[in-house]
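Teaching soon. Got one?

===
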Amino acid sequence: MSQFEDLLTKVGAPAGEGREMREPATGAVVGYAPVHTVDDLERAIASAGAAQPAWAALGHAERSAILHRAADRVESVAEGLAELLAREQGKPLNGPGGGARAEVGATIAWIRATADTPLEPQVVRDDAQGYSTLEYRPLGVVAAIGPWNFPMMVGIWQIAPALRMGNAVIVKPSEFTPLSALALVEVMNEVLPPSVLVALSGDREVGARLSEHPAIAKVMFTGSTPTGRAIVESSSRNLARLTLELGGNDAAIVLGDVDPVAVAQGLFWGAFVNTGQTCAAIKRLYVQEDAYDGIVDALAAVAASAPMGPSLDEASMLGPLQNKKQFDIVADLIDDAKAHGRRIVTGGIPATDLGELFYPITLVADMKDGDRLVDEEQFGPALPIIKFTDVDDAVASANRLDVGLGASVWSADLDAAAQVADRLDAGTVWINSHAVPHPAVPFGGVKGSGYGLEHGVEGLKAVAAPRVVNHPPKGQ
């Protein structure tokens, strides 16, 4: 039995039972996801709450050691996890940053980095009257509600820090990619104590109950802004803490001094990693007029050299849209751009020869602010390109929408780029790169893109309760 088959046997429902999961690339049945209920959730929360105090009592050093063993175990079945992820999510096995193997590798790296991130008590006052320390303690039971685009990597962004800080975790994966998340949790649970990490594959009723449950101390959610707002409302009933990584429509500003060929690869994969199905990908490209034609041509050349195809084909670097709903959103926005006479540079027509959910890389030039493809998040393989003359106008365009997850500035003059970056309303701004996260670097949005930080020391603090202890003067 292959690793993939073994994982599917462990986490999937029997054939013909549960919810049928199909491969986006081929339409073939991957397996059957169990359908957990609110009653299952209640039992899971009770078990997690009972197991959490002993997990917290182990201390940071022992929890970190266990997380390292969990990372080792995940690494031992990395190829099986990658195959399951590719089949269920649709992303190719390979591809810069967004392939299934890369996602599993990042998942392993994030577990280890989270385990190794120090968080010592901080002395915030020390004077003749005494000293005060700020320390961080477990919250209790944390809810981790994950997305379908990176179900393992983004899932571990929630899971690993919560566990490291001594919490128990209830995972609610997306209904589009439950098997991937269930498999990751199953593997980690071969090392973790029972019930400190539980994954439930349920419907929206389970998710809604999870976010309002009185025993949930923290909700971590990655997904759409409307769903995030609903979680804010429901969590008011139990005053659960929140980390919300919501929708984005990241702008990239390219100054006229760039070498178009030199930056084309970075711009292309900054936009189309995971076939554009990435929260903090470039989704609006503003190019200064001196570089405009060169950038359009260079991006078209990169698009022609990036093969799109079946997820398990080793040559594929780009895959299908994950689901029909997202495919329809992308197709509708491109059709709207065509109806308004915008210039289709590449793509523009569904790739039905590859499969029902394939849409080729579509570069649309001569776009304007106010066009739907500019103003609405496409979350797929379409990129609007907008020409500008004055940098002030580009900054105003980038900032005008009620989103602020990421942004980037591209220039041969790093000082000029930094000055522009300082004016952008986004939680993360990259210079001469985009959508490149790091486990030590905090990440989070502003405005309609949510609030709260993940990764690094700040990510650990976000899943813990701060406590101040006031001490008498030293020596007394």
In short: The longest strand covers residues 130-138. Residues 217 and 239 are 8 Å apart (CA to CA).
